[in-house]
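Please produce the structure of this protein holding coenzyme A.
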Amino acid sequence: MPEQWAYVADPFGNRIELVEPTPTIAFRPLTVDDFELLVEWFTDPVVAAWWDQPAEIESVRSKYLPRIDGTGDPTLMWIAEVDDAAAGLFQSYLHDDYSEHDIAVGLADAVGIDYLVGAPHRGRGLGAATLRAFAGFVLDLYRQAIVCVAAPAAANAASCAALERAGFERSHDCQPPDEPPTIAYTVWRATAAP
Ligand SMILES: CC(C)(COP(=O)(O)OP(=O)(O)OC[C@H]1O[C@@H](n2cnc3c(N)ncnc32)[C@H](O)[C@@H]1OP(=O)(O)O)[C@@H](O)C(=O)NCCC(=O)NCCS
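Below is the modeled complex.
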Protein backbone atom coordinates (compact mmCIF):
# COMPACT_ATOMS: atom_id res chain seq x y z
CA MET A 1 0.00 0.00 0.00
CA PRO A 2 1.39 3.45 -0.87
CA GLU A 3 2.55 5.31 2.24
CA GLN A 4 0.59 8.45 1.42
CA TRP A 5 -2.73 6.74 2.10
CA ALA A 6 -4.05 7.53 5.57
CA TYR A 7 -6.58 5.06 6.95
CA VAL A 8 -8.28 3.70 10.04
CA ALA A 9 -9.80 0.30 10.69
CA ASP A 10 -13.47 0.00 11.56
CA PRO A 11 -14.62 -2.34 14.40
CA PHE A 12 -14.68 -5.23 11.91
CA GLY A 13 -11.11 -4.67 10.79
CA ASN A 14 -12.06 -3.12 7.47
CA ARG A 15 -9.81 -0.33 6.29
CA ILE A 16 -11.41 3.10 5.81
CA GLU A 17 -9.44 5.52 3.64
CA LEU A 18 -9.28 9.03 5.09
CA VAL A 19 -7.55 10.95 2.33
CA GLU A 20 -7.01 10.63 -1.38
CA PRO A 21 -3.55 9.47 -2.42
CA THR A 22 -1.29 12.35 -3.40
CA PRO A 23 -1.15 12.53 -7.20
CA THR A 24 2.20 12.36 -8.94
CA ILE A 25 2.83 15.60 -10.83
CA ALA A 26 5.53 15.93 -13.47
CA PHE A 27 6.39 18.29 -16.33
CA ARG A 28 7.69 17.14 -19.68
CA PRO A 29 8.48 19.18 -22.81
CA LEU A 30 5.61 19.71 -25.26
CA THR A 31 5.92 17.60 -28.45
CA VAL A 32 4.22 17.68 -31.85
CA ASP A 33 2.21 14.64 -30.76
CA ASP A 34 0.44 16.88 -28.21
CA PHE A 35 -0.93 19.32 -30.82
CA GLU A 36 -4.32 17.57 -31.20
CA LEU A 37 -4.76 17.71 -27.43
CA LEU A 38 -3.88 21.41 -27.47
CA VAL A 39 -6.59 21.99 -30.09
CA GLU A 40 -9.04 20.21 -27.78
CA TRP A 41 -7.99 22.38 -24.83
CA PHE A 42 -8.10 25.63 -26.83
CA THR A 43 -11.61 24.73 -28.06
CA ASP A 44 -12.86 24.66 -24.46
CA PRO A 45 -14.71 27.95 -23.75
CA VAL A 46 -13.29 28.12 -20.20
CA VAL A 47 -9.78 28.12 -21.65
CA ALA A 48 -10.67 30.31 -24.66
CA ALA A 49 -11.88 33.03 -22.28
CA TRP A 50 -8.36 33.47 -20.89
CA TRP A 51 -5.85 31.99 -23.36
CA ASP A 52 -5.84 33.77 -26.70
CA GLN A 53 -4.97 30.98 -29.13
CA PRO A 54 -7.03 29.91 -32.19
CA ALA A 55 -8.13 26.29 -31.76
CA GLU A 56 -6.97 25.05 -35.18
CA ILE A 57 -4.21 22.57 -35.81
CA GLU A 58 -2.32 24.78 -38.28
CA SER A 59 -2.43 27.74 -35.94
CA VAL A 60 -1.24 25.60 -33.02
CA ARG A 61 1.56 24.19 -35.19
CA SER A 62 2.76 27.59 -36.38
CA LYS A 63 2.74 29.03 -32.86
CA TYR A 64 4.27 26.12 -30.95
CA LEU A 65 6.48 24.13 -33.36
CA PRO A 66 9.16 26.89 -33.37
CA ARG A 67 9.23 26.75 -29.57
CA ILE A 68 9.77 22.97 -29.75
CA ASP A 69 12.46 22.90 -32.44
CA GLY A 70 14.31 25.92 -31.04
CA THR A 71 13.74 28.24 -34.00
CA GLY A 72 11.21 30.48 -32.26
CA ASP A 73 11.11 32.70 -29.21
CA PRO A 74 12.67 31.45 -25.97
CA THR A 75 9.43 30.58 -24.16
CA LEU A 76 9.55 26.94 -23.03
CA MET A 77 6.41 24.78 -23.30
CA TRP A 78 5.49 21.98 -20.90
CA ILE A 79 2.82 19.36 -20.49
CA ALA A 80 1.81 18.83 -16.87
CA GLU A 81 1.23 15.15 -16.21
CA VAL A 82 -0.89 14.05 -13.28
CA ASP A 83 -0.42 10.36 -12.53
CA ASP A 84 1.09 10.02 -16.04
CA ALA A 85 -1.93 11.59 -17.81
CA ALA A 86 -1.59 14.87 -19.72
CA ALA A 87 -3.51 17.36 -17.57
CA GLY A 88 -2.49 20.83 -18.70
CA LEU A 89 -0.28 23.13 -20.70
CA PHE A 90 2.28 25.29 -18.91
CA GLN A 91 4.81 27.77 -20.26
CA SER A 92 7.81 29.52 -18.75
CA TYR A 93 9.96 32.46 -19.84
CA LEU A 94 12.43 34.92 -18.43
CA HIS A 95 10.92 38.37 -18.07
CA ASP A 96 14.24 39.72 -19.39
CA ASP A 97 13.36 38.20 -22.79
CA TYR A 98 10.09 40.16 -23.05
CA SER A 99 11.01 43.72 -22.16
CA GLU A 100 7.56 45.34 -22.41
CA HIS A 101 5.97 42.67 -20.21
CA ASP A 102 8.96 42.84 -17.88
CA ILE A 103 8.70 46.60 -17.45
CA ALA A 104 4.93 46.45 -16.93
CA VAL A 105 5.17 43.78 -14.24
CA GLY A 106 8.21 45.44 -12.71
CA LEU A 107 9.96 42.57 -10.92
CA ALA A 108 13.67 42.04 -11.60
CA ASP A 109 15.18 38.60 -12.30
CA ALA A 110 11.79 36.99 -12.74
CA VAL A 111 10.63 33.82 -14.48
CA GLY A 112 7.08 34.19 -15.73
CA ILE A 113 4.54 31.41 -16.15
CA ASP A 114 1.21 30.83 -17.92
CA TYR A 115 -0.95 27.75 -17.64
CA LEU A 116 -4.18 25.97 -18.36
CA VAL A 117 -5.68 22.77 -16.99
CA GLY A 118 -7.85 20.62 -19.27
CA ALA A 119 -11.49 20.07 -18.35
CA PRO A 120 -11.13 16.47 -17.08
CA HIS A 121 -8.64 17.60 -14.43
CA ARG A 122 -10.00 21.06 -13.67
CA GLY A 123 -11.84 22.22 -10.56
CA ARG A 124 -10.64 19.63 -8.08
CA GLY A 125 -7.54 21.19 -6.65
CA LEU A 126 -5.13 20.02 -9.32
CA GLY A 127 -4.70 23.55 -10.69
CA ALA A 128 -3.29 24.64 -7.33
CA ALA A 129 -1.21 21.47 -6.94
CA THR A 130 0.32 21.75 -10.41
CA LEU A 131 1.01 25.48 -9.94
CA ARG A 132 2.81 24.81 -6.65
CA ALA A 133 4.90 22.11 -8.33
CA PHE A 134 5.58 24.27 -11.39
CA ALA A 135 6.88 27.20 -9.32
CA GLY A 136 9.46 24.87 -7.78
CA PHE A 137 10.23 23.34 -11.17
CA VAL A 138 10.96 26.66 -12.92
CA LEU A 139 12.96 28.09 -10.02
CA ASP A 140 15.15 24.98 -10.26
CA LEU A 141 15.43 25.32 -14.02
CA TYR A 142 16.10 29.06 -14.31
CA ARG A 143 18.89 29.46 -11.76
CA GLN A 144 19.28 33.16 -12.66
CA ALA A 145 15.71 33.92 -11.53
CA ILE A 146 14.93 34.84 -7.95
CA VAL A 147 11.17 34.96 -8.27
CA CYS A 148 8.45 33.05 -10.13
CA VAL A 149 5.66 35.35 -11.32
CA ALA A 150 2.15 34.59 -12.51
CA ALA A 151 0.12 37.49 -13.87
CA PRO A 152 -3.52 36.52 -14.40
CA ALA A 153 -6.25 38.92 -15.43
CA ALA A 154 -7.72 40.41 -12.28
CA ALA A 155 -11.12 39.13 -13.45
CA ASN A 156 -9.88 35.52 -13.69
CA ALA A 157 -11.18 34.44 -10.28
CA ALA A 158 -10.39 30.74 -10.69
CA SER A 159 -6.78 31.48 -11.63
CA CYS A 160 -6.30 33.91 -8.72
CA ALA A 161 -7.85 31.43 -6.27
CA ALA A 162 -5.72 28.55 -7.56
CA LEU A 163 -2.54 30.66 -7.26
CA GLU A 164 -3.37 31.66 -3.69
CA ARG A 165 -4.10 28.05 -2.72
CA ALA A 166 -0.80 27.08 -4.37
CA GLY A 167 1.10 29.42 -2.04
CA PHE A 168 1.69 32.34 -4.39
CA GLU A 169 1.52 35.76 -2.73
CA ARG A 170 -0.56 38.50 -4.23
CA SER A 171 2.03 41.20 -5.02
CA HIS A 172 0.61 44.18 -6.97
CA ASP A 173 -1.71 45.31 -9.76
CA CYS A 174 -0.13 45.97 -13.15
CA GLN A 175 -1.03 46.59 -16.78
CA PRO A 176 0.99 44.61 -19.34
CA PRO A 177 0.56 45.84 -22.94
CA ASP A 178 -2.47 44.44 -24.83
CA GLU A 179 -3.75 42.64 -21.74
CA PRO A 180 -6.60 43.29 -19.32
CA PRO A 181 -5.89 44.66 -15.83
CA THR A 182 -3.62 42.13 -14.20
CA ILE A 183 -2.48 41.04 -10.75
CA ALA A 184 1.09 39.89 -10.17
CA TYR A 185 1.47 36.85 -7.89
CA THR A 186 4.89 35.72 -6.68
CA VAL A 187 6.82 32.80 -5.25
CA TRP A 188 10.33 33.88 -4.22
CA ARG A 189 13.34 31.60 -4.28
CA ALA A 190 13.84 30.42 -0.71
CA THR A 191 17.19 32.21 -0.27
CA ALA A 192 16.06 35.47 -1.94
CA ALA A 193 14.54 38.36 -0.09
CA PRO A 194 11.59 40.06 -1.85
C1 LIG B 1 -6.85 28.58 -13.76
C2 LIG B 1 -6.91 27.07 -13.74
C3 LIG B 1 -5.57 26.51 -14.21
C4 LIG B 1 -7.14 26.59 -12.31
O1 LIG B 1 -7.23 25.19 -12.34
P1 LIG B 1 -8.30 24.44 -11.44
O2 LIG B 1 -8.08 22.98 -11.58
O3 LIG B 1 -9.65 24.97 -11.74
O4 LIG B 1 -7.82 24.94 -10.01
P2 LIG B 1 -8.24 24.45 -8.56
O5 LIG B 1 -9.34 23.47 -8.61
O6 LIG B 1 -6.99 24.06 -7.86
O7 LIG B 1 -8.70 25.82 -7.89
C5 LIG B 1 -9.65 26.60 -8.51
C6 LIG B 1 -10.12 27.63 -7.50
O8 LIG B 1 -10.91 28.59 -8.18
C7 LIG B 1 -12.21 28.60 -7.63
N1 LIG B 1 -13.08 28.86 -8.77
C8 LIG B 1 -13.32 28.07 -9.81
N2 LIG B 1 -14.15 28.69 -10.68
C9 LIG B 1 -14.40 29.91 -10.14
C10 LIG B 1 -15.17 31.02 -10.55
N3 LIG B 1 -15.83 31.02 -11.71
N4 LIG B 1 -15.20 32.10 -9.74
C11 LIG B 1 -14.52 32.13 -8.58
N5 LIG B 1 -13.75 31.11 -8.14
C12 LIG B 1 -13.69 30.01 -8.92
C13 LIG B 1 -12.38 27.26 -6.98
O9 LIG B 1 -13.35 27.31 -5.95
C14 LIG B 1 -10.99 27.05 -6.42
O10 LIG B 1 -10.78 27.85 -5.29
P3 LIG B 1 -10.51 27.19 -3.84
O11 LIG B 1 -9.29 26.33 -3.99
O12 LIG B 1 -10.28 28.37 -2.97
O13 LIG B 1 -11.74 26.41 -3.54
C15 LIG B 1 -8.04 26.53 -14.64
O14 LIG B 1 -9.26 27.03 -14.16
C16 LIG B 1 -7.88 26.90 -16.10
O15 LIG B 1 -7.16 26.24 -16.83
N6 LIG B 1 -8.60 27.92 -16.55
C17 LIG B 1 -8.58 28.32 -17.97
C18 LIG B 1 -7.25 28.88 -18.41
C19 LIG B 1 -6.79 29.97 -17.48
O16 LIG B 1 -7.57 30.76 -16.97
N7 LIG B 1 -5.48 30.02 -17.32
C20 LIG B 1 -4.84 31.01 -16.48
C21 LIG B 1 -4.46 32.20 -17.27
S1 LIG B 1 -3.60 33.34 -16.21
